[in-house]
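Q: What would this chain look like folded?
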Amino acid sequence: MRFNKENLRHAIQSLLKEQYTTLSFKVYRAVRDTLVSDYGEESIISGVGAMKHNSGRWMKKGICYVLYASSNAETAIKEFFSNNEGDNKKLVLAEISVNLDKILDLTKKETVKKLGLTTEDLLKGWQGKQESLTQAIGRFAYESGFEGLLTPSKANSNGVNLVIFSKKTPIKGVILEDWKLLET
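A: My prediction, written as structure tokens:
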């Protein structure tokens, strides 16, 4: 899909002035058990993976710290396996409290429409060398001052994901409440 980056950037900047969501609730994150065993439990909420190791649906590697989480445990686990196909390793499921002020809510159809997009556009493939549509949305939201995104889940049609951006780690407004090891 071709999209005009400048139009998208301006649409996102205008949404920061008129339409954003404040959040204070619990979310869930599923990560490989080796993340915790290699780097400690604080790595669950550090956002370091997206900064140093891997690009994700909503941000290319190296732009900022990014924490991907979900509205419920089921969605977090489904998202984990959709991004780690064939990976039968142990995983850690974490419960995280978040308190964020400026979230771009892409689960609202009117918000997505203001960007000139559809929900289906947000769920299309993102992997490749070029910046994808969703990665451009994430980058423009971060550069415009949003603290994160609420997004539909591709892995669970009833799920919602929270993508949190930060210039540094630890990420402000994020507290690790609890975590447990799950065998798959």
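The first helix runs from residue 5 to 18.
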